[in-house]
Amino acid sequence: MLEKLKQEVYDANLRLVREGLVLLTWGNASAVDRTERVVVIKPSGVPYAEMRPEHMVLVSLDTGQIIGGQLAPSADTPTHIALYTAFTEIGGIAHTHSLYATAWAQAKREIPPFGMTHADHFHGAVPCTRMLKDSEIRTNYEKNTGKVIVERFKKLDPLARPGVLVANHAPFTWCTTVGNAVENAVVLERIVQMASETLMLNRSTTPLKKSLLEKHFLRKHGKQAYYGQKDK
Amino acid sequence: MLEKLKQEVYDANLRLVREGLVLLTWGNASAVDRTERVVVIKPSGVPYAEMRPEHMVLVSLDTGQIIGGQLAPSADTPTHIALYTAFTEIGGIAHTHSLYATAWAQAKREIPPFGMTHADHFHGAVPCTRMLKDSEIRTNYEKNTGKVIVERFKKLDPLARPGVLVANHAPFTWCTTVGNAVENAVVLERIVQMASETLMLNRSTTPLKKSLLEKHFLRKHGKQAYYGQKDK
Amino acid sequence: MLEKLKQEVYDANLRLVREGLVLLTWGNASAVDRTERVVVIKPSGVPYAEMRPEHMVLVSLDTGQIIGGQLAPSADTPTHIALYTAFTEIGGIAHTHSLYATAWAQAKREIPPFGMTHADHFHGAVPCTRMLKDSEIRTNYEKNTGKVIVERFKKLDPLARPGVLVANHAPFTWCTTVGNAVENAVVLERIVQMASETLMLNRSTTPLKKSLLEKHFLRKHGKQAYYGQKDK
Amino acid sequence: MLEKLKQEVYDANLRLVREGLVLLTWGNASAVDRTERVVVIKPSGVPYAEMRPEHMVLVSLDTGQIIGGQLAPSADTPTHIALYTAFTEIGGIAHTHSLYATAWAQAKREIPPFGMTHADHFHGAVPCTRMLKDSEIRTNYEKNTGKVIVERFKKLDPLARPGVLVANHAPFTWCTTVGNAVENAVVLERIVQMASETLMLNRSTTPLKKSLLEKHFLRKHGKQAYYGQKDK
C-alpha cells in the first residue's frame, strides 16, 4: 500500500517538472495515508533527474518524525503536516514556485474569479494568506506557514477552493489525491496567467457574477454535476 | 462516411492539444454531416491521451439526442448545435480556453483588427457576445450560450468572421471543415496575442483602415483571391 | 548553382518554422543570384510540412515573371524584387509575422536601441515605414510595400540596419545571404521582445548613447571587428 | 585536471543553450584553476552546435594571454579575468543575454527581493552597475565592464549575491563552480521574470522584510542551513 503511494508521490513530483511548474530542485508533492497515519513526501534538495520512487520519505502524521526512507524529507514537511491535520478531507498536496502564481503571491493579491475557467475549478477567489509575523518566522517557520494557510480557510471549504497563495512566497494546492493536487497546480498557474492578462487589458474588470460562478463550479462538482462520464 | 468524419473530429481535437490551446480535458471540436443531419463531437471529460476515434459521439442535429457512441458527448454540445442550426454554411466548430483569447473574453473586449495578420483571416473585429442573463444561465445554459453568439452575428457573415468571444467564458471558432475551424482557433490565439502586445505599446492604437482590411481579406478570400496555388 | 540556392532558400524557410517565427503557411524567404538575375522564392500558400526544395520558384529579377518551377510564387514576390533592386548589396530576404515585431509594426513604432544586444546587430533604431496611401493599396500593393521600405532607407545603409517594420503589417529582414537574413529575423524578434519588456519596466528609458552603439556594432562589423574567429 | 575543466566549461556553455538563455553564438561561460592560474573560456563566435570541449581556450589569469587552444577566446574574456581577480572565492562565471535580465539591465534597474524564490538564492537585491563613461568605452571596454562590476560590489559579498546586471548590457552570474554559475543564471532569469510580473500587478510592491530575507537565504546557505541532504 505505501509502496503504491510512494510511486504516486514520485510520479506527481516528476509531473511538476514536466508541466514547467518547478526549476532545479524547487517544489514538492506529498500524499497522506490516513489509516497508517503516514505522510509520503519528496526528499529535500535531490535533483529530479536522480530521484527514484524509493527516495520518497515516510513521516508520521502525528509526530512529524521520519519513520521510513534514507533521506531527509522536504524542508516544507511541517507545512504539509499542518494542512493534512486541519483539512481532513484532502489526500495530497503540491507546492511549486510556478511563475505567475508566485508573482501574485509576491504582490500579495488574491485571484478573483474572472471567468468560467476559474469557476470550473475554484468556487470563488483563490485566497492569499496574511504575512507571517517576525516571531512566526524565527521559530517553526514552516509549521507557521501551514498555520496562516489554515487560518485563512477558517470560513472556506478547502475542497471547493483547492489552493492558496502564501504571501511573499508561492502557491500550495491540494485535492483528494496527490495526482489531482498536481492537476490543481497546473490549473492554478493557467488561471493566474489568464487573470494577469485580463487585468492588463482592463484594470477594473469585475469578478464573475454569482450565478455564473455557481453554474460552472456545479457543472463539474457535486451531485448535480453533468460534466464528464457518469461512471467516472 | 461518418467513420471518416469521426477520424477528422478526433484529429482536430488532438491538434488542439498539440497547438497548446487546451489543458487537461478542456476544449472540444465537432463536425456536422448535413445530409445525415448528424453532429460528431468529442466525448465529455475524457483525457486526450486515452481518447480514440471510436469515442467520438454522434448526436442528432435536429433533436440533440445521442444516436451513436458509448460515451456522453461534450457538455457544450447544445452550443455547437445552436451554431450549426443558425450558421448553415459552417461544417466544423472548435472551442478552447486558449490563454489570450480567454483573457479578452474575460475582459469582455472585442478584438480590433490592428494589422494584416488579423485582416488575412477575419474581415473586421472579432466580436464579443453580451453577458448571459441569470435566467439564461439557470436553464439551458449551453443552448443559450449558442443563442447569444447567434444574436451577435445577426448582421455579420459567420464565414467572414469565423470566431467569437463569449463574454466571461472563452472563444469559439468555426469554418467549412473542423480542420479549418481548429486552424482558425490557432490564428485567433495568435492575433489576440499580437493585439495585447500592440495595446501594451500604445493604448490608443487605431484599427486598420478600411482599404487595408479589404485588401488583405480579399487577397485570401473570394473570387479575386490571389494568395496560394490556383488549383487549391 | 541555382539548385544549391533552391536548397538554401528551402532550408531558410524551414528554419523560420523551427525558430517559431511563422505559423501555418505564413512568412517567406528568398535569395537572389545577381549574375543570373534570378530570385528564388517560396511558393505561395504551400504547407511547410509538404514543401520540398524543388517547389522553390524562380522569378526574373528584371521582369518579375516566373522562369522556373511548377508553382505560383509567394504573393509578396514584388516586395522582394523591389528590395533586391534598390539594395544592391543584399543577397537574401526573410518576411515573417513574428509576434513581437508584428505588434510593434501594428503600433507603428520604430525600435530604439535600448541595449548592446540591439547594437550588436542593428546600427541604430530599426525603422518603421509610413503607412501606404489608398492608391498604393489598390494597385500594385506588394510592389508599393517594397517602395515604402526603400523610401524609408533613403539615408540609411541597409546592411547596417538589416531590417524594417512595415507599418500595420510585419517585419522584413535581409542580409548578404538568405541564411543570415533568417538569422536577422531571429535576432529582431528577440531584441523587440527585450525592448517591450524594457518599456514595461520604464516607459521613459532612453536609447543607448552613441559611444556604446558604435562600440558594439563595430566590435562585430567592419575592419576593426574583433568578435569571432579571424579566419571566419 | 585542465582537461576535466575544459569539459565542465563546455558542458556549462551548452547548458546555457538548453535552458533558453542564449541565442546564436551569444553568451559565454568560464572557469578558473587558481593553482595553475588559468582561465578556461568559450571561444568567440563559434556556433554552439559545432563547439567541442577541445575548442575551449586557456588564458592566463595574470597576463590575459592565450596559453592553450587553437581559437580566439570570447571577446568578453577581460571581463571574466577582472572578476576572477577581484572575487577570489569564485570558480566560474556565466554571461548571457537572457530576455528578462537583459531587459532590466537595459532599464538600468536593480532587482528587489520580492519573494522567497529570490531570497533562497540572492541575499538582497541583484545590483545594477553604473553606466560606463565614454573614455571607459573607447579603451579597454571589456576590462572596464569588469571594473564597474567590481566597483559595485565594494561593500557586497559576491557569493551572497552571485550576479549582477551591467547597465545597458546584460547579466553576469558566478559561483564556486561554472556549473553553479550557470544554475545561478537560470535562477536569475526566473526571479527577474517573477519580479516583472509582480510589478505589473502592483507597481508599488515593497521588497521582502529583512526577517524573511534572512530566513530563506540562511535555510539554504551557511552553517545553519537545513535545506537539502546533510552529506551534500
Q: How would you characterize the overall build of this protein?
A:
Four copies of one chain form a homotetramer. The first copy, chain A, has eight helices and seven strands; from the N terminus they run αββββαβααααββαα. Chain A has 232 residues and is α+β, with helices and mostly antiparallel strands. A seven-stranded antiparallel beta sheet of chain A has the order 4-3-2-1-5-7-6, with helices on both faces. In chain A, β3 (57-60) and β4 (66-68) form a beta hairpin. The mean pLDDT of chain A is 95. The A-B interface holds A 114-117, 183, 186-187, 190, 193-195, 197-198, 200-202, 205, 208-209, 211-212, 215, 219, 226-230, 232 and B 23-26, 43-46, 71-72, 75, 97, 99-100, 102-109, 131-132, 134, 137-138, 141, 168-170, 196, 199-200.
